[in-house]
Amino acid sequence: MSVLKNRSTLRWLVPMAAAVTVVGGGAAIGTFAANAEPALPPRSAAQLLVDLQTARLDGLSGTVVQRADLGLPPLAGLAGGDAALLTGTHTLRVWYSGPDRQRVALLDTLGERDVIRSGRDVWTWDSKANTATHRTLPESTGRAAEGALPVTPKDAAEQALAAVDPSTLVTTGRSATVAGRDAYELVLTPRDEASLVHQVRIAIDATEHVPLRFEVLADGADRPAFEVAFTQVDYRRPDADQFTFNPPPGVKVTEETADRPGSKAGPHRKDGKPGTQRPGAEDAGLRTVGTGWTTVLVARTGAADVARTPAGDAAKPGPADGPGAAQALDLLNGLPKVSGDWGSGRLFAGKLFSVLLTDDGRVLAGLVTPERLYEAARG
């Protein structure tokens, strides 16, 4: 059964692609303006790694600019949320005051979207929609949005450094000035030829040892395809009121309760009644194959919600599928057909990531060559 005739594919393809494109991008884009290289004492790659791992940051605020061009504006528009960060240029304001107090504000011409964490309380606010959501985290929790796209160089660096193992060549690059701060450059180069990532470059504050800029280059490219960097940074601890959110008058507030690990219950409404579990959560079957730079994400979309016409063809998306469902189906149907001893399906091959949609209902994606996806599909 073709994955293109399964509506759950529309729910899982884009969020999954977003996850594997943490350091992904499409066409090359311009780099942030560079200044003359500062004269800094020599420092080895091993020393810079230690600097990153032992840095102590009490507080920080600043402006971050992120640039990316995945070449997938239709899909990004369908996914919403984090996927908005996958294309174009975006400006964010960030505040940090320890692991349980953070705030990120995405600014655009039409309004502002904030995520604010203070202890176990997490607020999201959309000024354009005039809506807010409050969520209470479990007592033991990590980041408020685990698996989300990185919005600061520190977020991106942490995820990239998780891939540092014998499969990674770690070297130093040129010194730089970022957001008015002198910085060293750490360069990560995957050794596995199946990775489409050529290099990841992390500019590290020479004094505070905080990542100030994160860049990723695709094979054969000499300019970053994805970059996120501070344009202004202040290491003083932000005022406590930055992490206090009081809904403005007229804002529609939704109250949610975070599920405990392993729980299948959905969010709860203000009146205490259970909410609806996210569609497709059970049939996604998300797993990983491989490690490090060549990790492949595999999701089984299932076939429980396949809709067909009396003639046996896939039904056209209806209102419940969202306004972009037809556009997504057209895009998926336009992908080239591929086949092999693993089966058959359709393939999207980008500069930094590949996505394979098999006819038996699987979606495979990674920062890898199509051949590596085929290998994973055989398992």
Task: Write up this protein.
- Keywords: Membrane, Transmembrane, Transmembrane helix.
- 35% of the residues are buried.
- The chain has two domains: 3-11 and 278-378, no CATH class; 26-240, Lipoprotein localisation LolA/LolB/LppX (outer membrane lipoprotein receptor (LolB), chain A).
- It has 379 residues and is of the alpha+beta class.
- The chain is 15% helix and 34% strand.
Reported by name, the CATH topology of the largest domain is outer membrane lipoprotein receptor (LolB), chain A
Mean pLDDT figure: 75
- What is the strand content? 25-35%
CATH architecture of the largest domain: Clam
The first-level CATH class name of the largest domain: Mainly Beta
Helix vs. strand class: alpha+beta
Can you tell me the residue ranges where pLDDT is under 50 for at least 5 consecutive residues? 1-33, 143-147, 260-283, 303-320
Domain MucB/RseB N-terminal: 90-237
Pfam families: MucB_RseB
Keywords: Membrane, Transmembrane, Transmembrane helix
Biased composition (Basic and acidic residues): 253-273
